[in-house]
Amino acid sequence: xxxxxxxxxxxxxxxxxxxxxxxxxxxxxxxxxxxxxxxxxxxxxxxxxxxxxxxxxxxxxxxxxxxxxxxxxxxxxxxxxxxxxxxxxxxxxxxxxxxxxxxxxxxxxxxxxxxxxxxxxxxxxxxxxxxxxxxxxxxxxxxxxxxxxxxxxxxxxxxxxxxxxxxxxxxxxxxxxxxxxxxxxxxxxxxxxxxxxxxxxxxxxxxxxxxxxxxxxxxxxxxxxxxxxxxxxxxxxxxxxxxxxxxxxxxxxxxxxxxxxxxxxxxxxxxxxxxxxxxxxxxxxxxxxxxxxxxxxxxxxxxxxxxxxxxxxxxxxxxxxxxxxxxxxxxxxxxxxxxxxxxxxxxxxxxxxxxxxxxxxxxxxxxxxxxxxxxxxxxxxxxxxxxxx
Length: 389
Ligand code: GLA
What we know:
The chain is α+β, with helices and mostly antiparallel strands. The chain contains eleven helices and twelve strands. It has a domain at 5-201: Ribosomal Protein S5, domain 2 (2-Layer Sandwich). The strands form two sheets. Strands 1, 2, 3, 4, 5, 6, 7 and 12 form an eight-stranded mixed beta sheet that branches. Strands 9-10-8-11 form a four-stranded antiparallel beta sheet. Alpha-D-galactopyranose is lined by residues 35-36, 38-39, 169-170, 172-173, 338-339.
């Protein structure tokens, strides 16, 4: 666990005046490949990173959920059952949204005092929100005495995003944050929820995550716009083929190509990204265990090109960073990761070059943008679990 448990326990005791009785943690994630495919019922290939959210808690007699967010030094306190968006503490919405969904399943969330603490970068495309949601769920399961399967837990988190927070996101983030296994990437079929833990056997390579420092400001609205454009493509393809498919997952590249000139060009390009990205993701899941780093690097580069030119979810800083990365020795491949419009990039780099790669990337990126590029290496970590009890 990346967050210091002893420090968190001391902070809990200092704030609430007694020891916590339970705790749960959940990681952030980086997506290796398979971007904007999950809500199209396609394939994704993320891994959990060594950055965590930790929630410590103690039951109280008061029928309230009181949470102190140590990172912000803010406290939010809501009555149980008053599950509404918080006026001043957006981070509280993740806990309240999860509590609301837990109660909709028929379980009772008890009165609690909680301390929330984490080191998953916020708004950087590393799923800090799914990390809070899955840590909260694991905690509520423990406190209320029930346990969901991993797919049901992930679906609950997705409902929080879709119904409570108004983001039409897919299931990738919550799934990997809940179900990841150390040393493995998760290959997930976002239609059936069938998933496979794939050992990351890429000898002498590391994944470097680098933050552009551009916060994903537009992500919410542009994200939902892409969801709508994909649905438009499905309608056009269904009409042309006499089918009633629900998602882009169901169409092949040939079917799309025959319709290329009969649909708005941007809709065609959105669909081309999704269809080709699904193929790249399936291939990636087959080549990491044999350890084919150079092919994985090519797939990552190709994914990035498709996200930039066809899906149009990058931004100048993301493009600059991946461009610089590809000029540096030891880099197999680079791409934006997560929703896009800012946030992080991920790079597959040979271990011997890691230090120089990070230094070179940060230095050149800062020279050209004036922004810091925060770089870190992460091994594949494990999913949500209990901590600190
Ligand atoms: C965000 C969403 C995910 C997924 C990615 C893009 O992280 O929460 O569901 O759609 O963007 O791949």
